[in-house]
Amino acid sequence: MPPLLQRWLSDGPLMVGSLLMPAGTHTIYTLPSADRFTLIINSQTGQFHTVYHPERDLGRVPMTMTVLGEPIEALTFAVTPNATGGGVLALRWDDREYSVILRSPGGA
Fold this sequence. Notes:
Layout: E1 5-10, E2 14-16, E3 19-21, E4 24-32, E5 37-42, E6 57-81, E7 87-103
């Protein structure tokens, strides 16, 4: 399972869906299946892209899948404002978007 993003740096704690991600540098992975898409946040960084140690996972978060109107050729990461506060991390590729809510631990 190669990482999607080798380094995700946060200067403060962040709620990723229902998971509290502490400040620091993390690696994210995804685990796709036929009926769900899961974001994995791992505390190990700097490893070769084929190295994955599940015991270093901070947690796993389900992502919401949306079918896009037009396919996107290149894998795209986007963080956009959320209408109810915080933001949304979206991964877009082909005719799918997978997203999860981001917010500060204290609220929006």
